[in-house]
Amino acid sequence: MKLKKILFILILSLSIVYSVSIFSHTINFDFYTYKGEKVNLQNFKGKYVLLNLFTSYCSTCLVELKTLNKLNNACKSDRYKIVSLLVDREGVTVLPKIVNSNNITYTVGIAPSNIFKIFPDFSITPTTYILNQNGNLVERVVGYKNLKSWIDILNKYVNCN
After folding, report:
1. Strands 48-54 and 127-131: what pairing?
2. What is the overall mean pLDDT for the chain?
3. Residue 81 contacts residue 44 (beta carbons within 8 Å)
4. Which residues pair with 91 in a beta bridge?
5. Nearest Cα to 57, choosing from 107, 94, 83, 100?
6. Is 110 helix (H, G, I), strand (E, B) or coil?
7. Model-level pTM?
8. In a domain, 17, yes or no
9. Ranges assigned E (strand) in 11-126
10. Which of 7, 54, 125, 141 has the smallest number of CB atoms closer than 10 Å to its CB?
11. Which residue did the predictor score with more confidence, 150 or 1?
12. Is 4 domain-assigned?
């Protein structure tokens, strides 16, 4: 019984250390916007970043792009930035049409080819990673969220009234 207790505490301790290490390193990489402009995540240092990963063939993702655009327009704060990155290379040719037809006003680009190494837990679209002002991962949001849910999530980090 005592061995089980020690083993449980050891496993719990290791999982806490592992989860803290995931959330403690700075995430930084370059990507290109749909217009071909090179951007580095460090450009947004000092702001929270909602880093949304999506695919062109995911209808829920396309709805979420519209929702994030509404969030961007509803929550006027210079303390956060929304960035959506396309992860499927097949969708690159339709990305400008997606952005323009939905009047998206925030940063949209193409994920770097190593995005699955940067976020090894990424497997479902849409997934949004929230980075703090230093570029550290503070939250992962999987699946579609409506505008009210996004406002509630964002309010944990930035005052969005």
Report:
1. antiparallel
2. 88
3. yes
4. none
5. 94
6. strand
7. 0.84
8. no
9. 30-33, 38-40, 48-54, 80-86, 107-110
10. 7
11. 150
12. no
Show the tokens assigned to 61: 């993702």
Residue range 60-84, pLDDT digits in tens: 999 999 999 999 999 988 999 999 9
Q: Which residue has the tokens 């679209």?
A: 125
* Cβ atoms of residues 77 and 46 within 8 Å: no
Confidence of residue 161 (pLDDT cuts 50, 70, 90): low
* Residue indicated by tokens 């992860």: 87
Range of the domain at 113: 27-155
* Among 99, 103, 100, CA closest to 84: 99
- Specify if 161 maps to a domain: no
The average pLDDT across 27-31 equals 97
pLDDT for residue 11 is more than 60:
no
Q: Phi, psi (5° rounding) for residue 45? A: -55, 140
Q: Is the pLDDT of residue 159 over 80?
A: yes
Report the distance separating Cα 92 and Cα 113, nearest Å: 13
Q: What is the pLDDT of residue 23?
A: 46
CATH, residue 35:
3.40.30.10
Please give the sequence-ordered ranges of beta strands (E in DSSP) within the chain, or none if there are none: 30-33, 38-40, 48-54, 80-86, 107-110, 127-131, 137-142
Number of structural domains in the chain: 1
